[in-house]
Amino acid sequence: MEETFGSLLRKLRKNKGIGIKKMAPEIDLDYTYLSRIENDKVMPSEQVIARISKYLRYDEDELLLMADKVPDDIKTILRENPQEALGYLRERFAHGKRSGSK
């Protein structure tokens, strides 16, 4: 099973021994909302991801990508250099797969 934002968040929180009811108010969230994030019922905003990143001391860009959000600097690179950026990524990471193939 592919890791989701919620499952990663739960794993990070538990690995640090932090309960959901302790963490939620410390990042200015209701614990029921944090639970919904961990259960992949809702996707957090970029602002919430930034607070989670800082609190758990985990790479914000990785959390953004796990939440299907692209960091602003990467968006700029893609917009300014679409062919080169996409070509590089496909060549480097596609492992022989072509776009659109399954």
Topology diagram in text:
Elements: H1 5-15, H2 20-26, H3 31-38, H4 46-56, H5 60-66, H6 72-80, H7 82-93
Description:
With 102 residues, the chain is an all-alpha fold. The chain has helices at residues 5-15, 20-26, 31-38, 46-56, 60-66, 72-80, 82-93. The longest helix is centred in the last third of the chain and has 12 residues, at 82-93. The model has no long low-confidence stretch (mean pLDDT 92).
Task: Report the average pLDDT across residues.
Answer: 92
| Beta strand count | 0
- Write down the overall geometry: elongated
Spans where pLDDT lies below 50 across 5 or more residues: none
- Radius of gyration, in Å, reads 16 Å
Helical proportion, percent range: 55-70%
* Number of helical elements: 7
| Overall tally of domains | 2
The N- and C-terminal alpha carbons lie at a distance of 17 Å
What is the CATH top level name of the largest domain?
A: Mainly Alpha
Quaternary organisation of the protein chains: single chain
Give a concise summary.
It is elongated and about 45 Å long.
Comma- or semicolon-separated keywords:
102 residues, mainly alpha, 434 Repressor (Amino-terminal Domain), elongated
